[in-house]
Design a protein that fits this description.
The chain contains twelve helices and eleven strands. It is α/β, with parallel strands linked by helices.
């Protein structure tokens, strides 16, 4: 079995182009076309279809894609173990995470990690909860960092309780208060994240005595903050975002306080590659220090 054929197949599907995959992987156009033909002969049926906008997997290719990604992950882990035995740490890590974690956690973690492991390539893929979970399910990510991993198909490690805060415009009657109750918020118009992107807010709103009015929804936390600042409504966002950018709004604690649990997940703990294990160690160290400073 030639593992490079499977790698070429996955990259061609992800890029939607054989020529782009060939350029990225260092093959000629004819070379990668021959590899795809050889792979289809090996499995015994076609895997790709050509469309006006590029290539995509057919139904059989879609069925095999998660398994092939898992195979490539196992091969990567094997190569990393061999490199580790030889005394060389190489490889790559694909991280699926919230944009806020990518912005406020990962730069510091990666900076420390790269000092010890400069040859490891790191790919960061940002998205909401549904996107992250799909990446983990399809083996497109080696590690995820987000909230809500309990009970999913991957193994989950809770790390950090992130407080959820109510944002109100600066001229709001409660803007100078420290806390605000769900009852007081009952008549407010809410600006909420798109449900597929951030479900924690909806979990909080579901505990209110009655469903509040939803005025707007948006994928971007920063768009929501600026809408609140302009008096279009109130919102609930995590402290991880708000403490770095409040946009001129007032942030209040809910009474009683509410939290989301940020953590990290991997497909299988026993199959985690050496470089991913090392990166997880740096994540834990960062969160431990974070807890000491707050």
């Amino acid at each position: 079995m030639n593992i490079r054929k499977y790698e070429a197949f996955v990259r061609a599907v992800e890029l939607g182009s054989l020529s782009k995959a060939a350029e990225e992987l260092g093959y000629t156009q004819s070379g990668i076309s021959h590899m795809m033909q050889s792979l289809e002969e090996e499995v015994g049926f076609p895997l790709l279809v050509r469309t006006s906008v590029g290539i995509k997997p057919n139904s059989e290719g879609e069925m095999l894609l998660p398994v092939i990604r898992e195979l490539l992950g196992i091969n990567e882990s094997l190569e990393q173990h061999i490199a580790k035995i030889k005394g060389v740490d190489t490889g790559h890590i694909r991280i699926a995470c919230y944009s806020s974690i990518a912005a406020y956690w990962l730069p510091e973690i990666i900076a420390a990690f790269q000092k010890e492991f400069p040859n490891v390539e790191i790919q960061i893929m940002e998205g909401g909860a549904d996107t992250i979970e799909a990446m983990m399910e399809n083996r497109q990510a080696d590690l995820c960092l987000y909230a809500g991993g309990e009970g999913k198909s991957f193994e989950w490690v809770p790390l950090y309780r992130d407080r959820m805060l109510v944002l109100v415009p600066p001229e709001h009657p409660e803007a100078s208060a420290e806390r605000i109750s769900p009852q007081r918020l009952q008549q407010e118009r809410f600006i909420v994240p798109v449900k597929e992107y951030d479900g924690e807010v909806y979990g909080i709103l579901d505990t209110f005595p009655a469903a509040p009015e939803t005025a707007f929804s948006a994928c971007s936390d920063y768009a929501i903050i600026n809408m609140v600042r302009l008096g279009l409504g109130v919102s609930i966002l995590p402290e991880l975002v708000v403490k770095h950018y409040s946009g001129g709004t007032a942030a209040l604690e809910l009474d009683p306080p509410r939290y989301r649990m940020l953590g990290m997940g991997v497909p299988q703990m026993k199959a985690v590659s050496p470089v991913t294990q090392n990166f997880m160690r740096y994540v834990r160290a960062f969160v431990k220090e974070l807890g000491k400073t707050e």
